[in-house]
Structures are given as structure tokens and as C-alpha cells.
Amino acid sequence: MCAVDDVVTCGDLADPGRLAALAEAGLGPRADPGMEWYAERVRRWLDVPVALVSLVRADEQVFPGAAGLGEPYGGTRRTPLSHSFCQHVVLTGSPLVIGDARDHPLVRDNLAVRDLGVVAYAGMPLTDAAGHVLGSLCAIDVTPRRWRPTELDALADLAAGCATELRLRLARRDADEERARRDVLEASLRDSVERSVTVAREMQQALLTTLPEVPGLEVAARYAPADAEQYVGGDWFDVLPVAGSDEDGGSVVVVSVGDIVGHELDAAITMGQVRSMLRQAAWDRAAGPPSSIVEAFERANAGIGLDAAGTTVVARLRRRPDGRWSTSWVNAGHPPPLVVTPGGRAELLEGHDRMFGLPRGLGGVRRDQELDLPAGSLLVLHSDGLVEGRGTDADERTETLRSRLAALRAADPDTVVDTVMAELPRSSSDDVVVMALRLG
Q: Where is the GAF domain (predicted)?
């Protein structure tokens, strides 16, 4: 990792293999939903005003993913290399971490300091499968900053996920070009695609949980895919009554919602595997905290080479013999659930850990949260597609959701999920799951 006082030697940004990979990725100075997802996560997780997915061309840098970037660059989504810190990440192939650019010999004369207000910078390389550095995932602050190791680890994890997304796009582009050369098979390929769409719809319906009957618990859930034609995606919901009872005779139900990185059929297939593995872990660890369920899944995820990445909330609902409820939960990078008390108070269930499945994601200890819930409480879990989307503010939409749920405190779960899905128009680029549980 480049130290603050390092001065690097510049190489050649015009490497033909690197430029060919950039062109094949199909990303430029336009917002891309997948790249926007990573930029927004960096901005929120590292608490910085600006975060970028920056792809460096021979004579400019472009931002298919940008969060918090001001005008005019927020509109054009490009700058010349005179305003680029990210070019140095590409040239060295290494992370670049700067606490105060105004004193750094490598970038103190860079026009980004003057024109964009860049002071503190942390950028991680984005590579393709051949090792070409295409750009960087970077966090930017407008004041001097001492970057904490945990922040840099989180940025590196997100950059690894972003690089994987780029590699998948390049692989798909190669496959598309190969299919284009097979004109003689066009008719049969079209038939094959139509059959696969039918199978995908049927598979998605099979993968989504049929909600069980649980005494003392009313449950409703809805799923809406990003692609309404294919009806496939990577979001899930699950409700699992655990066999037997708690140590004092109470009953236990494990619930989860989650979101696999990616879209369409690949994400749906991975989602089915992840949900099944979480179910098995929940069954085996019914008496333990939710963190033990997620940790067991993560070990299996890495051990069998599935390497699924995404976010989830796993909650353990416990009904005591006297009818009182309590819940414990763990949040792996997912939007927080909400609880609405019978009196109408709606609160976010805070507590936020790293996503699952990213490199170095198995290190560290996950934190469980606990809360007693009065009978009649409403618990609502959802995926990020409900509150996040291009041109929307996630915090504002979350507050709108919180206020709306407070008004729906007495409604049955079916009415709650239908109302929420109807009144919070979702982003067309992401799947949406909403699940509501009424504790009787």
C-alpha cells in the first residue's frame, strides 16, 4: 500500500490489453446500477462525502458509479487525467492512501485538489481476470483524514466485489460476441432462451418460501423482481419454525431476508443455495444466537467454493410460555429491519456488520442485538431495493417507510406489505422483498 510520502514512477496508461478490457466492459460516463451500488456502499460505510467507481482511460477517467459527486462533474461523470488520483492506482497496481493531498508530493499539484476539493483519498485497484488494472474504487474526503485500518479493509472488500462484477461483465460480453458469430444457430438459440425464461420463472417460484403456519404469528411477504419479464433475481425471504422448543418451553422461529450480489438467473440460482444453507445452519443452531447461524453459513460458503456474496438479516424470534416475545438478530450489511409497537412507535433495529462472502469477510466477530417485544408488535424486514435507487435518497425513503409503518400499526401483515409496495415505488434496477410479521 502506498505510504503518504511515497512518490511513484508512472507507467503507460495506453496498454492495449487494458484499453481493450475497458472497452469490452461497456462502461463509460453514464450511471450504471451495479457500479452505483458499490459507490453508495463506500460513501455510507466509510462516512465520506464522495465515493467513486473510476475507470481510467488513456486520456481521461469516467465514473459509472458515483455517490456525492458535485457538479459539473456529477453530470458529465468524467474528468481529464489532470484531475485524476485514480490513475496512480492504475499505474502502480496498488492501493493509494493519502491523508492530506495538499502536502503529498505525488498529487499536491493535481487539479482535483483545487477544482474538486479532494483532500483525503483512499483508492483500491479494480482488476480484470488477466490482471489489468482498469480503475479504482475510491473514497474521498474534503478534509484531512487518518484512514483507519477497518475502513481500508472494508474498502478493499468492496473493491474485490466490484472487480468480480467487472469480470463477470467481461465474461458475459465474450459470451455475447461468441453467440453473435453463431448466426446459423440463431433460431434454435431463440427457442432455447424462451424455454429458459419459462424454467427461470418456475424455478424462482419454487425457490421462494411458502410461508408456514406458526401459532401466535401472522406473516405476509411479497417479492418483486428487477426484471419483470424473467421474474428472477437474488433477493429472498424465509420463515423457519424450529423443531422442539426453547429451554423453558417457549417456541423459536428463525426469519431472514437477504440479497445476493448480481441479478437475473445466476443470482437466483445462488440465492437458492444460500437460503438452503442458512436454513440448515439455523436448524442445527436453533439454540444459539443468529451470529452463529451466519458464521456457520460463511464457513460452508467458503469451504465448498460457492463464494456467494451479499447481505442478510437473520433474526431469532422467541415466544416465551407466558406469551411474551423477544428477538435477537444479526445484520450482515443489510438495511435494518423496523419494529412498530402497538402504541405506534416505529424504530429501526440498528446494528450493522459487514456483508457476507467478500474476501476477508470471514474474519472478525459478528455482533448480535437483542430486544424484548410486546405482544401485538409488527416486525418488518425488507431488501435494499425498497429504499435505494437511482435519483433517490435512501435515508429519506427509510424515514418515509418508518412513518408509513407507524400509521399502519394496526393493519394485518398482508395489508402492510401491499401498502408499502404500492406507496414506495421501487427502483427498476433492483429486486424488492418486503416481509411483515405480527407477534400475537
A: 30-176
